[in-house]
Amino acid sequence: MMKKLMVALLAAVMIVTGVAFAKPASAQSDAGDFEAAVPPVDSLVMCMLERGYSYRPNSDDFFWASLYYMLGIYGSEDTRAVVEDDTIAFPSEVVSDYAASLFTQYSGLPEIPASLRESIDYDAATDSYVIARGDAGLSETVLGEGTPCGENSFLVPGQIVSLEDGSVICEFEVILTEGEHMFPYTVTDLLILS
User: Fold this and answer.
1) CB-side exposure of 67: number of CA atoms within 13 Å?
2) Where would you tag: which of 33, 38, 44, 189 has the fewest CB atoms within 10 A of its CB?
3) What is the mean pLDDT of each run of 10 residues along the chain (194 residues)?
4) Range(s) of the domain holding residue 78
5) Same-domain status, 17 and 64
6) Into how many domains does the chain fold?
């Protein structure tokens, strides 16, 4: 019974969200589906909401905090990860793959800031990063239709929606740029609106 209620609630949220992001046919872009961009966008928005950050790709603290969310929530599904009860270990190439989706101008892994060394540890012997496992929580990131805003870039509206009651936790806009990385889009900028 609870499962049916949850499915019905999710369906209602998707319908309402689809209506909220609907545009006239003449105004819709040919951007396609941004579903593959949800993991990096969700990780960034959750990091920004929970830690009070703005999107600052040049900040080592923001870089690693965002990457921590991305790896902790989505990394356990990667076949290259070594998953333990409380931790996940990632070869450095995996960490680079995920970082490239969070930051369009990504150019390499900076040193882990002292403030995050309790959550992220680098093992030089195996060239891997070990983090505590994360929890996806009870929300969903929903992306709307994209509007072209530059070469291979799209301005995409989005919402974080509660899975408990369907309420909108926050609204944001993200600029996604097509790339040739693990994910088809990278985040160029992100602004939380409410």
Assistant:
1) 33
2) 33
3) 36 35 33 82 94 93 95 90 90 95 93 92 95 79 93 94 93 94 91 92
4) 37-132
5) no
6) 2
